[in-house]
Write a structure and sequence with these properties.
Elements (H helix, E strand, L loop, with lengths): L4 E3 L6 H9 L2 H11 L5 H7 L4 H13 L3 E4 L1 E4 L1 H4 L2 H14 L9 E4 L4 E2 L2 E5 L13 E5 L5 H4 L17 H7 L2 H11 L5 H8 L3 H13 L11 H4 L2 H14 E3 L5 E5 L8 E5 L11 E4 L1
Parallel strand pairs: 1-8
Antiparallel strand pairs: 2-3, 4-5, 4-11, 6-10, 7-9
Helix pairs in contact: 1-13, 6-13
InterPro entries: HTH_HxlR (IPR002577), WH-like_DNA-bd_sf (IPR036388), WH_DNA-bd_sf (IPR036390)
Protein name: Winged helix-turn-helix transcriptional regulator
Keywords: DNA-binding, Transcription, Transcription regulation
Length: 289
């Protein structure tokens, strides 16, 4: 594995840095197309309704963050290619839970078994499926973990045009700094308004606005608990956390730390094929029309 990025003590941790980088729809779409073979500026311009200025800015940012190497075009680094599990989890969640897409999502076929599949979140140590509701993970914030350090810097993100959004609801969840923090708090069991405000340490107006947004999306219910749709976002969260902590490391230690109780190992997310049960790897995930 190529070198990780060291983060200074007391500053934003791996989660905050990653949400600031990947919580952007254009960046996700650029990575998607790169994983599908785009390497040249003209490739992205032909595939995405994106302006030259926005594309150039995002490619520069992703290159500076170590996801691309610039040479004869743009080549994914190991860090960039490793984002495939995050993209695959988003693809599957949007396919299942977001019925109205501007573009039709392709089906997924596992090259090894030749069958359509859904990715199944599993423990990489014992290969047991892990759900948000089965209470087999123990842990939470690690040495560099806190709500303040896990929230990305405030940035002004340009949302894509209406016909661009392969990830419209994912972007609503992780592309806003307060929505991302609120989703994280909900997965840690928070469901009272006062507790959300305490965790986010922001104004009641902001908390109320984000809760309304997540309720409107069907991610939170009237009781502010995660719905089935919200709980199904768990693989995206865990794959994002895994990617973040493989490539960004704070001086004090990890931002989040979990142990898988059935096997006793530290939890690291992996994905299996729902059809054959084999471990998924990037080269064996095939989109079909």
């Amino acid at each position: 594995m190529t070198e990780h990025t060291a983060l200074p003590a007391g500053q934003r941790n791996a989660i905050g840095v990653t949400l600031g980088l990947l919580g952007d729809e254009w960046s996700l779409l650029i990575l998607r197309e790169a994983l599908l073979g785009a390497t040249r500026f003209v490739d992205w311009r032909a595939r995405l309704p994106i302006s030259n200025a926005v594309l150039a800015a995002r490619l520069q940012r992703l290159t500076e963050a170590g996801l691309f190497l610039r040479g004869n075009g743009y080549r994914l680094t190991e860090r960039g290619a490793d984002s495939w599990s995050v993209l695959l989890s988003i693809w599957a969640w949007e396919d299942r839970w977001v019925p109205s897409h501007p573009e039709r999502l392709p089906d997924r076929v596992h090259r090894l078994c030749g069958k359509p599949f859904d990715p199944v979140l599993v423990c990489s140590a014992c290969d047991t499926a892990v759900l948000a509701t089965d209470h087999t993970l123990e842990g939470g914030f690690g040495p560099s973990g806190s709500w303040e350090r896990s929230v990305p810097e405030a940035t002004t993100r340009r949302r894509s045009a209406g016909d661009a959004g392969l990830f419209p609801e994912t972007t609503a969840l992780i592309g806003n700094r307060w929505s991302a923090a609120l989703v994280g708090a909900a997965f840690q069991g928070v469901h009272r308004f006062s507790d959300f405000q305490r965790c986010l340490n922001t104004s009641p107006t902001m908390v109320a606005d984000r809760i309304r947004t997540l309720c409107a999306l069907g991610v939170l219910g009237d009781d502010y608990r995660l719905t089935a749709k919200g709980l199904a976002f768990f693989p995206v969260v865990m794959c994002l956390v895994g990617w973040a902590q493989r490539w960004y490391r704070a001086a004090e230690g990890p931002a989040l730390s979990y142990r898988h109780l059935p096997c006793g190992a530290g939890f690291e997310a992996a994905l299996d094929c729902s059809s054959c049960g084999d471990r998924l790897v990037r080269k064996d995930v095939v989109p079909t029309s």
